[in-house]
Request: fold
Amino acid sequence: MDKPLIVFWEVTRACLLACKHCRAKAQKKPHPDELKLEECYDLIDQLRRLNPLLIVTGGDPLMRSDLFDILEYADGMRVAIAFSGTKLATKDKLKRMHDLGISRIAVSIDGSNPEIHDHFRGKTGTFEMSMKIIEFAREVGLSTQINTTVTRFNIFDLPNVMRLCLDVGVDMWDVFFVVPTGRAKPELMPSARDFEDVLCWLYDVGRRTSLNVKSSAACHLRRIEIMRDSGTYNIPNGRTYYELLKGLEGFEGEGMVVASRGLKLKRIPGITDGRGMLFVSHVGDVYPSGFLPLKAGNIRERSLIEIYNESKIFIDLRDPERLKGKCGRCQFKEICGGSRARAYAVFGDYLMQEPKCIYTGGRSNR
Reply:
């Protein structure tokens, strides 16, 4: 991939929340050196030439007073935006996003009730506000997405979150598997066995319900889809899978029937940290992803495409043949490749094997 197809842009690190698993260690006030408006315009000009899907994130993008100047300047581009579940996301602002052509908004829901979600997000009332934002968005015609972070502590609530997604009619459920960086501690990560079980269950969710579901920081789902679709999946399911499967009782063959409104997400195999994807920070630093904290350059010094094409870390990550351990031997390395961010967080080497995958060429690694 000679250019990025997905770009995540952290327009600010300011945020009113204090989430336990925050990658950015977000703070209440903007960083004094965050990109100025003219620098934001210059970045958009560069992105326009590359034509990626642009995902505006933070912190909370709504903490930037000039956010709508940025969004207006990006007119005509494919732009989605993810923000925090706070009072800043008013119905009027969502209507304005719709009128500007924003393809989709994403709100995080990490539990099916306030007790679980608000504990994650560090502020009481966040669950209620997040649900209200989703309602506002749908009322003004914005395509909606729920993002859910999977940790050891909310795995068995996932079927309830799934039903919530179906009840409110979101267009996408993005299930993110925690990476231990920023505020996220290693003990938040589920076991490799639980990774496999949850991903196998997500495969079933996508085929037995009308919910459009994807995984983030867990490319193993691509392997599981191929293996299960072809009838070659031979890894015994664990107890977690069968417990989650109870949440699908009553759903039989309803999946793959609802077309998503707004942003059309055609899944392109092989996009992962640094390979078809990059992250631009609030101060212009460029990383393979927001969860792999190794700076490749800064847009104040070099163009984005130069950084992507010429920096060693991006060159390494774009070549699956450089992967080590069982990822390097895996026949699915070109469409999966594992989370390079999680490999770096656990082993200190972004080319090492995915630490939360049990697949070893058809045998489970127990």
